[in-house]
Amino acid sequence: MADERVKSTKVEFKGKLHWELIFDFNHIEKDATAEREKTEKIRELYTVRTVVETVDETAKTKTNTDNVSFSLGATTKLLSASIGSSFENSEKVCSFMSKHMQETKNHEREWEVEEKYKLRANTRLALYQIYFMAPGVVYPGALVNDKQDDKDVHIFIDVQTIELIRDLQVRYGNNPSDASEENWVQEINKQNDVNSGDLNKGFGGKYTWLVPEYTTNVKDAATSFTIYVQSQAKQHWDDIAKGTDGDFRYVKPIKNQRT
Prior knowledge:
Blueprint: E1 4-27, E2 34-46, H1 48-60, E3 76-83, H2 90-103, E4 107-119, E5 123-134, E6 137-144, E7 151-173, E8 207-215, E9 222-230, E10 248-255
Antiparallel strand pairs: 1-5, 1-7, 2-4, 2-6, 3-7, 5-6, 7-8, 9-10
């Protein structure tokens, strides 16, 4: 539908920092120095569906301070990521996720880095790659010598809830000032010139406006509208041509039965 309204809120997205061993050379009880070469495989991942499903599942259980409630079937869009708990590489993680949220494409990349290390006599060298890991997300951080236990961290995802048109309510008036204060459907002429919200302008009859009724649930949203024209009145239906002394006209939503 062309008409939509949006609301947004921040949803917590939980992840962890993981220290992955990539290099471990034992040079204990060796008197001479030694050089070692190591090819490191680095990876990063962003899986759209997994991230969206995780955020939606979290959002459904919460109501934010702006009273935006996420419910089953809501139409949402992930806008950006921001720092929740500050951690190693947190700014780059947020930039990485925000970029791929905008692109809405899966991303997977793996590359190799060749490194040379010199070991002193009677030493041992271990290196760990720090990764940020969360459902659908893997992002590399620093290379360090000391291993730590996995650390729980979180970021915030700015989630947009899209309100789609569910139905069109027919509103009547006796003069132009009776127009609803809500946004009403406008008639568009050539070159996008807005003519009038009054459907009966130029045809007599009651002043008539169509006011959208919104929903956040895809199953309830209209995919299009049909206008029925008939000579007999339909009980409980609102005639958009009321008072014009012509056929009765009714506008009704068509919904996607596959959702």
